[in-house]
Amino acid sequence: MTGHEDFPCDAAVSLAGPAGRLEALTACPPVCVHRTGREEDRAGAATAVICHPHSLHGGTLHNKVVHTLARAFGALGARTLRFNFRGVGKSEGAYDLGVGETEDLLAVLEWVRARRPRDELWLAGFSFGAYVALRAAARFPVARLVLVAPPVPLYDFAALAPRAPALIVQGAADEVVPAPAVREWAQGLQPAPQLVSLPGAGHFFHRRLNELYDIVLAHLAPHRPHA
């Protein structure tokens, strides 16, 4: 399948997941109009999937960090998809400690790959979503990873390592995920990911979302694929 018709733009969609239907929202960059005056496929050659924070602590696809990441990817010309893990919003099923949520994400990635087979796949996650993203990336090839406040001391990260070029953004004043633990984990990885520490920023990046947006934009802009 080719063309943006197969990836519904700016739409609420319901995907088949392993525990039932999964609620998702898509967004696409502006339509390109070439010199012929003819509208072509949407700009960009990447699709980004973004994972929300913990399902039992208010995490949803509408989380402001998740929304900020989607805006940054969109500004780079990428299509985006945010979705609710099982048991959240209109997604069916129940919370499953990150195990079932990894299966949810893999189903979403397969859905995107079927519709955008030529696109680079970018994968991002915030907090618990970063943990799930790393788990899924060990089983599904992605081109780039963006991990915001990965909850290193809260889950078993010992066997988890990015298999794609990765950006880690960590608030230096994170009250949930200790910044030193994230730094120690990141420094032990080979190849080393890019780690950006945001001074004074807490876990939810209150009043710092514009800086998070700028960091993601600056990191990914040189690697933006061409349509």
From TrEMBL:
Signal peptide: none annotated. It comes from the Bacteria. Residues 56-158 form the AB hydrolase-1 domain. It holds the Pfam family Abhydrolase_1. PANTHER family: AB HYDROLASE-1 DOMAIN-CONTAINING PROTEIN, ALPHA/BETA-HYDROLASES SUPERFAMILY PROTEIN. This is AB hydrolase-1 domain-containing protein. It comes from Candidatus Muproteobacteria bacterium RBG_16_65_34.
